[in-house]
Amino acid sequence: MAHLRSLILLLSISLWPLSGLSQFFDSEDGSSSKILIKGGTVVNADHQEVADVYVEDGIIVAVRPNIKVADDVTVLDATGKLVMPGGIDPHTHLAMEFMGTETIDNFFSGQAAALAGGTTMHIDFVIPVNGSLSKGYEAYVEKAKLSCMDYGFHMAITKWDDVVPKEMEIMVEKGINSFKFFLAYKGSLMISDELLLEGLKKCKSLGALAMVHAENGDAVFEGQKRMIELGITGPEGHALSRPPVLEGEATARAIRLAAFVNAPLYIVHVMSSDAMEEISRAQKSGQNVIGEPVVSGLVLDDSVLWDPDFITAAKFVMSPPIRAKGHGKVLQAALSTGILKLVGTDHCTFNSAQKSLGIDDFRKIPNGVNGIEERMHLVWDTMVESGQISATDYVRVTSTECAKLFNIYPRKGAIRAGSDADIIIFNPNSTFHISAHSHHSRSDTNVYEGRSGKGKVEVTIAGGRIVWENEELNVVPGSGKYISMPPFNYLYHGINKADEKYLTSLKAPVNRIKQSL
Ligand code: URP
Ligand code: ZN
Ligand code: ZN
């Protein structure tokens, strides 16, 4: 044990600013194999009831009123509080090499921040190395060795040749059931429509979910040139160079190409009403399109990009950009009516020094904002406290829908016997405060600086361990597990029948009698 402690200490010193260290070590190793959560309101996506929750060895064993336990069980009183599945963040970038630098949060600091905010699992995007999926995968397996909570992987596809589709098959065997295609970032991650079509077909044959970053990269490139020619080099140029119409166009294009091959589609970080409208239209026509808003798009507006202080403005630079006032409200409404299905963060943090890479040219500001720690609080405050969604809907959009889409439900995303013990105790009558001075990300800034609101994650249990209690983290690098995610999620049910119907509808080839002329 002493040996393990010194190892953790060594690791953490190299990973963490000293001020945060005390939060990671208390008298015990934090493992509490038997826990009883007493008297809370257990909220699942479909139902809520007052019940006790009994956990043993990382698994929920029972959910019912009045569970009696022996003395060796840690009892947590949840009277007057909500007991909910830990959040699952479908969209993060930890230890990502991007735009000439690497995100400041790695798999330890990013996950520790997540746990302090009630998120107990995330799905991170593996970026191929020179187009190689297997090399990218190996690199991320290494990065993820620091994990202190459960995680899964999506895989980006950045080129196409004979090897890539074969590697996609191997990735699915390794438990990756989703592939992301970037229609933006010309010259680095961006792919062509031809590649997207190949990718969509391959995803469909594998039962994997195709995900798209929807912005027209060629037009963005043109917009950037225009801004520079106009002498606009600051962060506002970022928003001006890639307006909502370019997000709407790419969203519509991806949706139509997915319809053309009858493949389900997931649009990541929906930031504008333009993109949301395209998703809604496709859904009304019966197409399986999932839209993922991110917290920044729901609660922020682009006025901050015009701040006279460069760092204050640059910290909000992400793609697609945070939009003008009005878009956020529209996205909230779409989330409340089910057009948008689940909330991610796109947590991709860079500190002030890194953001300063673009001091003379907004095109060089590393794109990305924080959110992994703030998501659960901000979604509650913005959506539930305002009366737009119920507590059960909150569980659905922050946890259950993600578990279902990535095919790990009910292991994740539910408080029920047999599920993993990833649980939060949430006090709806308490308040949260956000500041870079108190957050757990390694970034020196926070795009939600100074915000407070109603509701507070008081306890986080991950894999049956109490990892966040009394404002203290108790996390161990290496304790998080890789979650393998099988293909053929619910969007694939019935897809063969639709394909058969399509083939019959062709009434072709026509059997013609060949006559000699
Ligand atoms: O600005 C962003 N979104 N950075 C992360 C990369 C991506 O496009 O998701
Ligand atoms: Zn993206
Ligand atoms: Zn992203």
Task: Please give a structural write-up.
- With 517 residues, the protein is α/β, with parallel strands linked by helices.
- It has 16 helices and 18 strands.
- The strands form three sheets. Strands 1, 2, 3, 4, 5, 15, 16, 17 and 18 form a nine-stranded mixed β-sheet that branches. A seven-stranded parallel β-sheet has the order 6-9-10-11-12-13-14. A two-stranded antiparallel ribbon has the order 7-8.
- α4 runs parallel beside α5 and α8 packs parallel to α9.
- The chain is globular.
- The termini are far apart.
- The N terminus is likely disordered.
- Bound molecules: N-(aminocarbonyl)-beta-alanine and zinc ion (ZN) (2 copies).
- The site of one zinc ion (ZN) has 4 residues, from loops.
